[in-house]
């Protein structure tokens, strides 16, 4: 409800992802169970979908939680400072198992690009 009543109208392409399908929102089931930690599975599922043929080709992917408030016009102005053809990640960096040859990725409740 937060996204729908605030910034959804400013999004060129928007999808809602979940661990269940809900036609009233509508959500897309990613096939990744909900968890309190280890959200990297959801992030990687979203990235796989973003890079798949099912998605329109756009310059940027913004991942946010369902309670995130954001100004898309302001974000677009910020993104003009970057080249979408270069590897760019904006957000909080999260490390998973880095001491055991793990990996890092962007995360954060405020969203990430």
UniProtKB/TrEMBL annotation:
Main location class: membrane
Q: Which residues cross the membrane?
A: none
Per UniProt, subcellular location reads as:
Membrane
Protein name stated in the entry = N-acetylgalactosaminide beta-1,3-galactosyltransferase
What pathway does the UniProt record associate with this protein? Protein modification; protein glycosylation
Keywords annotated in UniProt: Glycosyltransferase, Membrane, Nucleotide-binding, Signal-anchor, Transferase, Transmembrane, Transmembrane helix
Its EC number is 2.4.1.122
Similarity comment: Belongs to the glycosyltransferase 31 family. Beta3-Gal-T subfamily.
Xref: Pfam families: Fringe (PF02434)
Q: What is the lineage of its organism?
A: Eukaryota, Metazoa, Chordata, Craniata, Vertebrata
Q: How does it sit in the membrane?
A: Single-pass type II membrane protein
All copies of domain Fringe-like glycosyltransferase, residue ranges: 1-113
Which InterPro entries would you find in this protein's record?
C1GALT1/C1GALT1_chp1 (IPR026050), Fringe-like_glycosylTrfase (IPR003378)
Originating species: Xenotaenia resolanae
Q: Which residues form the signal peptide?
A: none
Task: Give the reaction(s) catalysed.
Answer: an N-acetyl-alpha-D-galactosaminyl derivative + UDP-alpha-D-galactose = a beta-D-galactosyl-(1->3)-N-acetyl-alpha-D-galactosaminyl derivative + UDP + H(+)
Q: Does rRNA-binding show up as a keyword for this record?
A: no
